[in-house]
Write a structure and sequence with these properties.
Structural class: alpha/beta
Largest sheet: 6 strands, parallel
Distance between the termini: 36 Å
Shape: globular
Low-confidence stretches: 411-432, 434-450
Oligomer: single chain
CATH architecture of the largest domain: 3-Layer(aba) Sandwich
CATH class of the largest domain: Alpha Beta
Radius of gyration: 23 Å
Strand order of the largest sheet: 2-1-3-4-5-6
Number of strands: 14
Strand content: 15-25%
Length: 450
């Protein structure tokens, strides 16, 4: 079991002290996170670490996973695609399946909390089936810059019931959404199996056990098999790369119960790459082991991310943390992490030749690649570690606490970078802990009023 103290060496005493400071008034606050899978994908990986650290600093954090049939997850995958701009149509049957699955889950998912955080579209309508007595937050991890309008209008009626919406980029905020919108960047856990340090011996052991030869440079894309990750476009880029530089492409892919399209995308991509697979130039590896993914990212000469759309893309963050140089597309949250020609290369998503050219440039200039890798690791240390994510959630929870306290004698002095500062009124100091706030408001149990 990790504790906050385990991160001191990586992030420094100042960060650890600041976390404890911001958590001080939240002792005993009950927070529930709800998403649609406990493994596979960045959301589950973040929650695995975030829940532990929230509890470690005194917040009573819990995590619930939405249950649903394959038809439901096929529908919510369609919603995921629609939010990122794909055509979609909502008929009565789809609406009924979506609502009935959430309603059924609500009957056996009791929520006794002071704040509820719902992740992505799958559990979005849950709020409809509870008597709302606490703040609800919708945390959207996908690219909302250009959603399908019909789907957006359908989902917006559930979003409007929430108190706050969290997105991963300023580019996703919506002018037609009249509730508070906050930006919180995702993050990785540097101490998880996927990101912890490995010795050269361990790296080679895992790579060779996975069947990856070590006779020539390896370039790798780590991602779900999803058409937004453009695995077939990556294959076309690789064919151009091989004309100039002898290397091997590894697709290190993952799957998730809430992404039923993955098997079809994998099958299609494999068929197109079959001749290259037979020659040993392309290798498909299922990244079910986090430590294997870790080793492959560290062993790879370059990590690639040829996405057409991205919410944020923690696969890029992971590679940067390992000091592996990255060539990626200029979409979603990737340019928040990569500064072009500084700690990596950014290429427009449909520029296959340009993508191949940047990969070749780094393969032919190992010193440039090494320097980019060093800068990439430092950028993650400063901006995209789980301790920073924890701080952002503590800010959010403190803001919600101040709004509660304001009703009993406090005022909000102003908003600075999305966080509210509490000041006393008439000499009354604001309560110093969550439990004291509840006693000050004569509440038998911690509840917000809608």
């Amino acid at each position: 079991m990790k504790s906050l103290d385990d991160y001191r060496e990586l992030v420094g005493d100042d960060t650890i002290a600041e976390i404890y400071k911001r958590a001080r008034r939240l002792q005993g606050m009950r927070v529930v996170h709800i998403n649609s899978t406990n493994e596979g994908g960045g959301v589950a990986e973040m929650l695995n670490s975030l829940i532990l650290l929230m509890n470690d600093v005194g917040i009573e954090a819990d995590w619930r996973v939405l249950h649903g049939a394959l038809d439901f997850f096929a529908l919510t995958k369609e919603f995921h695609n629609g939010l990122q701009g794909s055509p979609t149509h909502i008929d009565k049957a789809k609406e009924q399946l979506y609502l009935q699955t959430n309603q059924a889950f609500s009957t056996y998912c009791r929520i006794d909390a002071d704040c509820v955080v719902v992740h992505d579209p799958q559990p979005l309508p849950l709020i409809k089936f509870y008597k709302k007595r606490e703040p609800w937050v919708w945390r959207c991890h996908v690219d909302l810059s250009n959603p399908n309008e019909e789907l957006w209008q359908f989902l917006k009626k559930f979003i409007l019931r929430h108190d706050v919406v969290i997105m991963s980029s300023d580019g996703y905020t919506k002018e037609d959404l009249p509730i508070e919108q906050r930006i919180i960047y995702p993050a990785i856990d540097p101490l998880s199996l996927k990101n912890k340090e490995l010795s050269k011996k361990e790296i080679l052991q895992h790579v060779q056990e996975a069947g990856i030869p070590i006779d020539k440079p390896v370039i790798t894309q780590v991602s779900r098999m999803d058409h937004w990750k453009d695995p077939q476009g990556l294959l076309k880029a690789f064919e151009l790369i091989r004309e100039k530089f002898d290397c091997r492409l590894v697709y290190c892919y993952s799957s998730s119960v809430d992404d039923p399209e993955g098997a079809e995308v994998l099958s299609t991509t494999y068929r197109k790459a079959e001749k290259l697979v037979e020659r040993g130039d392309v290798i498909f590896i299922k990244g079910t082991s986090h430590i294997l993914v870790n080793a492959i990212q560290r062993f790879s000469t370059l990590v690639l991310q040829k996405s057409l759309k991205e919410g944020f893309c923690l696969c890029v963050t992971e590679a940067l943390w390992k000091g592996t140089p990255v060539v990626a597309t200029n979409v979603g949250g990737i340019p928040l992490q990569l500064r072009n020609a500084d700690n990596g290369f950014l290429v427009e998503p449909y520029d296959t030749k340009g993508f191949a050219d940047k990969v070749i440039q780094l393969l032919q200039n190992p010193n440039m690649a090494k320097q980019m890798g060093k800068k990439g690791k430092e950028s993650v240390r400063q901006n995209f570690l789980i301790t920073r994510l924890l701080l952002d959630y503590l800010d959010l929870l403190n803001d919600l606490l101040w709004r509660r306290s304001r009703r009993s004698g406090g005022v909000v002095e102003g908003q600075i970078k999305g966080s509210y500062k509490m000041v006393g009124v008439g000499g009354l100091e604001p309560p110093t802990s969550w439990s004291q706030t509840m006693r000050a408001n004569h509440c038998a149990t911690p509840r917000f009023q809608s």
